[in-house]
Amino acid sequence: MASELIRVLKEKYSFLSVVLETIERAIGAIEEGKDPEEVYYTLITFLGEFPTKAMLQKLADEKGLGIKVKDKESAVEVIKRLGG
After folding, report:
1. Which pLDDT tens digit goes with each residue over 34-80?
2. Which residues, including other chains, have CB under 8 Å from residue 81's CB and lie 6 or more apart?
3. Which among 37, 55, 64, 74 is least surrounded, fewest beta carbons within 10 Å?
4. Of 84, 31, 19, 3, nearest to 55 (Cα)?
């Protein structure tokens, strides 16, 4: 279902295509255990700093990580923990 939603959003809103592809790649990089700082920089390059931190804060809250995403270091820590 999620992949179907992403496909529809990409087709309907072409400007979202780049953003969604970036998020998909970042998720893949996290799952592959790539450098968390590299993942962070990829996200802020395409999404911006505030949206990236907000997204990571939401994920940290959902996973019960107990981290407040206030700066780069805390954002990278969330990415590390999400990667396992």
Report:
1. 889 988 998 898 788 998 999 899 999 999 999 999 999 999 999 99
2. 60, 63, 65, 67
3. 64
4. 19
